[in-house]
Prior knowledge:
Layout: H1 3-28, H2 45-51, E1 69-71, E2 74-78, H3 80-87, E3 134-136, E4 143-145, H4 157-161, H5 175-178, H6 205-217, H7 222-226
Antiparallel strand pairs: 1-2, 3-4
Helix pairs in contact: 1-6
Amino acid sequence: MTKKNKRSHAFKQVQSFVETEEENQSFHEPRLPLSTPRPTAYPTIYQKLTRANVDWCRYCGTTEGVNWRPGPWGKRTLCNKHGCDYKGYGFACKLPRLDLKEFVTESIHDRDRPVLQLYCSGCQRKESWEGNILVRCEGCSKAYHQKCFHKTDELNGDFVASKKAWFCDPSCCENAQRKRIIVELSRKRLPLMRSSKSNCPSSASSVSSETSRTRGLYPESSSIFAR
């Protein structure tokens, strides 16, 4: 068996292991009824920025930038970083890392908040459940499930049921007045982002990178690689 075939065989074993683990995890998770995210004030802070002719990234929500890029919503709708990710600029395979194809038919006026605020900043899941509602900050692009926010007692059932505005950080209260939102992105892979290597099927390193990532997620699977 060649080195390439051994790598492919190891990858298939790990992939099967990961799928089994994910199935077991989902099987043991409590099946809570789905619910809608907590409503925010209308117009949203981002709709106010649009009316004030302030550029903001429809993906991450930042207002900071110089070179604004086109996105599915038209010109100057993505910051420089995510505009490059969307178009695939700066990557050897010239393929996009940011997958926004589900928004290509959406009007710019219908995008009332950044795409990232559709996902929990903690677990990066989009679903919202009864007893674990997705709560969106009204001063930045972040959102958290009740159980994902570090101050779990702050997002209790009584507060979620109320109409009080929620800000994930005190500085978010001032963003509407300053008409400025600075976004600090997580180092982990963000929703709808793909590895540039995974977009190049001919790249042998894509298997290696996926194998390394899986080994980090499931340390107990390291024995597979030792064989």
